[in-house]
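Hello forum,

I keep getting stuck at the same step: I have a sequence, I want structure tokens, and every attempt I make locally crashes halfway through. Rather than fight my setup again tonight, could one of you with a working pipeline run this one for me? It's a single chain of 362 residues.
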Amino acid sequence: MAEYERAAEFLAQCAKLYPADARAKPALSDAIILRLGLQQDAEAVKLASEYVKLYGQTDRPMSATIAIAIALHYIENEEWAKARDILTQSHSLLESAPIDLRIQAHLAMARGMLHGPAPEQAYVELTAARQMFGDGGAVEAQIDKAYPGEGDGQHMRRLAKTLTAAGDAMVLLADRDRIARLATLRPPVFAGPKTLVAINQHLSTKATEWMLKRRTAIEEIERQYVAVLDLRPMPPPKAVIASAAAVGKMWADYADDLSRMVPLEAYPTRRTTQTPPTMPTRAEAKAALDQLRNPILQRLAIPALKKCVDLSAKYQYTDDQSRSCDQWLVKNDPSVREISDLAPTPRPPRPEWQRDEPKRPR
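Reply #2:
Ran it on my machine without issues. Output:
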């Protein structure tokens, strides 16, 4: 670590002494990266300011990249206020940067704002990032134009980062609608007479009405998540898995809420001489619930969570969300083994998750 620190000092000194030298800019950017890696945030920010001062007018893309890198470093360490500050200070620089950096900057600012005093403002930033990306076709052309001297490899890296940022913005916007809308659709918990007739009456009236509203809401929100698959030139794997996991969780929570509509702990596990003849046992009350829950579990929740695992296999992308899908299936579907024991076999996708991915001519 001491050697890295000395290297950062010499690289920064080189850039300051010979700013016009062709090696000065990469030396200073390397010094910033070293300082960030050493967790010397104050020194990194100071060097970033020096970079903007020296090269902000002649190398705006790199200056903007450095500002975003420092903001993302703060976000990774959950220093939300510092992330917002560096992006606010670099606002004019970022707004004149190439489109890939502008989209990434809007996403970074949104993440910082979600943990700030005005989280609703984050969704303004997310909407800006999503609208700026569009369908992806124009963005790809603009990236080509902004970096004419770069090869295919660097072009694809820039495009991948931009796709990922747009996908993350879509997921966060859908998450907001999911949380807000489903919070108003809590299940009607049965509190009537402890009789099987009363339970069935509740399940066939209030519960059925709630189920229709809840299912309609989930299907509408699901369409927002599925829209991630329309991003071009190809859907970003991280956002695809996040979307599939969120959809799976909605259906799983729906099934779980159905199982809690009648507080089963209020009913006896077995019938005794003291049990009123009209009161059902816990198993009988659960059987009434299962008539509603099992179709949701088997036809909607389990297929949605399996789709999450299948997409993880298809895109060769695994994270905490894809693992949570697998863990849920292990607990709720006897036919599923843990992903660590058996790689998931791709299954035919549900129609709304089927998209044709166009080949990108190069």
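The chain has two domains: 2-174, 190-353. If your local run keeps crashing, start a new thread with the error log.
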